[in-house]
Design a protein that fits this description.
Blueprint (H helix, E strand, L loop, with lengths): L2 H15 L5 E6 L12 H12 L4 E6 L6 H9 L5 E5 L2 H6 L1 E3 L10 E7 L3 H5 L4 H5 L2 E5 L3 H8 L3 E5 L1 H10 L5 E4 L3 H7 L7 E3 L3 E4 L4 E5 L4 H17 L1 H8 L1 H10 L5 E4 L7 H4 L8
Parallel strand pairs: 1-2, 6-7, 10-12
Antiparallel strand pairs: 3-11, 4-11, 5-8, 5-9, 5-10
Length: 284
Amino acid sequence: MHRRTAISTAFGFALATAQAGQSVVLRYARFSATADDPRIHFPLALLRAALLAQGLEVEFQPAEWAMERTRAIKAVADGEIDFMWSSLGREIEQQLRPIRIPIYRGLIGQRIFIIHREREAEFARIQKLPDLARLTAGQGVGWVDTQILQAAGLKVVSNTYDALFKSLARGTIDYFPRGANEAPAEVAARATEFPELMVEPRLLLAYRSDNIFLVGRENTALAQRIEAGLLALHASGGYQRLFDAHPYVQKVLAEAKLAQRLRLEIPNPMLSDEDRRIPERFWL
């Protein structure tokens, strides 16, 4: 029996035999060396609620080291960690088992920009996509967003997530596109280290995308629990209540001011056919 199969079989047994009130430890991919990465709060709260709807109490344990997306995919596939969340896309869905229920209702594909404060006037002159194409975006290593932006004719360089903030501060990239649910919290979390960075106030680069949960391909037990729990939350209204009440989501939405932005639409050629069939009720 392969190592990953042995791990997922043992994990499936642990799930199946967990008693009421007994916690199961789930290990997840850690994407930043920052002690309190604001991006983890809503996905973990949502997954906790979904699994609790399935009668399963969980404890979440981050990976010991921060890892880039490519390394995280391998860690999940090899059973070193139990799950991750990442953007929809054919490539990752061929390597892992996707649970195709968007975590943020599409906010990940509503991209606003982190920029250097000294560049605000320059971005204020952008009116259409070719204007933006003259500048260079930064994206994380292995992110599917890199291919989406490049397919739209935009220039992109890749670096580690934490290094991209340093690149912005130094001026080696011009902007860092982030999900509307991410940018305000990320800038706030780094205000002391990078006071020169800000959220650009008027542009929105939009495409169909969102984060989903992914587990190892053999980890059927966990995938089924997550999917059933998320569907139950949506059916009961629990998901919408959590989305509407969660302080992280509501704070960043209030700060992002999406309705007031100039919207630049681009396609997402990286979606699988299954991604394109995700029901509209799961999107904003």
